[in-house]
Design brief:
The complex is a heterodimer of chains A (117) and B (111).
Chain A (H helix, E strand, L loop, with lengths): L4 E3 L2 E4 L5 E6 L6 E8 L3 E9 L2 E4 L8 E7 L2 E6 L8 E8 L11 E2 L3 E5 L1
Parallel strand pairs in A: 2-11
Antiparallel strand pairs in A: 1-3, 3-8, 4-5, 4-9, 5-6, 7-8, 9-10, 9-11
Chain B lengths: L3 E2 L4 E5 L4 E7 L6 E7 L6 E7 L4 E4 L2 E6 L4 E6 L8 E8 L5 E3 L3 E6 L1
Parallel strand pairs in B: 2-11
Antiparallel strand pairs in B: 1-3, 3-8, 4-5, 4-9, 6-7, 7-8, 9-10, 9-11
The chains are: A mainly beta (117), B mainly beta (111).
Chain lengths: 117, 111
């Protein structure tokens, strides 16, 4: 099993530039999650999708952030324009997502390390 | 208000001994709990989980205990190994798929 695959692993960009992070969930998983980790706030859920449909985006910090899931095997998180305070590690995760809470283990990718200068 | 609490920011244990990591939660409706391990520069890795219908789940050196009346769970690692040095997160999941995390406990295994 390839696990959750994220790209790029590392990105350094200038303030104001557009950043696109990509994720391939585990095949067969119905739920996909985007998390952000910072020293100050720990691990925060930004948005999650179930069967490619965004279910809860209340964690998305601002309109500069957007996420899409055009099909079951691909999702993007876009930041436009980027700001230095967006510097963080962004994790994508997926889950079998049977619809119930119990037993829905979430599997994480290795993260995309974003630095905005 | 934190719904999942890991009150020990760090824990130091001698190699070969038992490591016990603790976690408390506030909502008795939570019915599924997970432990994740995280190394620096890597994503959290799922370790072990427990459903509220059980009070114990064991997987190799890792055992999770759940005390529903006390709203407390613990992760036991025995024997502890140097590779176990990492940050351990306790988490639960609400009905909206929100993973509710504890702040983490940094485990240091001393040789």
């Amino acid at each position: 099993d390839a696990g959750v695959i994220q790209s790029p692993r590392h990105e350094v960009t200038e303030m104001g530039q557009e950043v696109t992070l990509r994720c391939k969930p585990i095949s067969g998983h119905n739920s996909l999650f985007w998390y952000r980790q910072t020293m100050m706030r720990g691990l925060e859920l930004l948005i999650y999708f179930n069967n490619n449909v965004p279910i809860d985006d209340s964690g998305m910090p601002e309109d500069r952030f957007s996420a899409k899931m055009p099909n079951a095997s691909f999702s993007t998180l876009k930041i436009q324009p980027s700001e230095p305070r967006d510097s963080a590690v962004y994790f994508c995760a997926s889950s079998p997502g049977t619809g119930g809470v119990s037993g829905n283990t979430i599997y994480f990718g290795e993260g995309s390390w974003l630095t905005v200068v | 208000d934190q719904q999942v609490k890991q009150n020990s920011p760090s824990l130091s244990v001698q190699e070969g001994r038992i490591s016990i990591l603790n976690c408390d939660y506030t909502n008795s409706m939570f019915d599924y709990f997970l432990w994740y391990k995280k190394y620096p520069a890597e994503g959290p890795t799922f370790l072990i989980s427990i459903s509220s219908i059980k009070d114990k789940n064991e997987d190799g050196r890792f055992t999770v205990f759940l005390n529903k009346s006390a709203k407390h769970l613990s992760l036991h690692i025995v024997p502890s190994q140097p590779g176990d040095s990492a940050v351990y997160f306790c988490a639960t999941m609400d009905s909206n798929y929100q993973l509710i995390w504890g702040a983490g406990t940094k485990l240091i295994i001393k040789p």
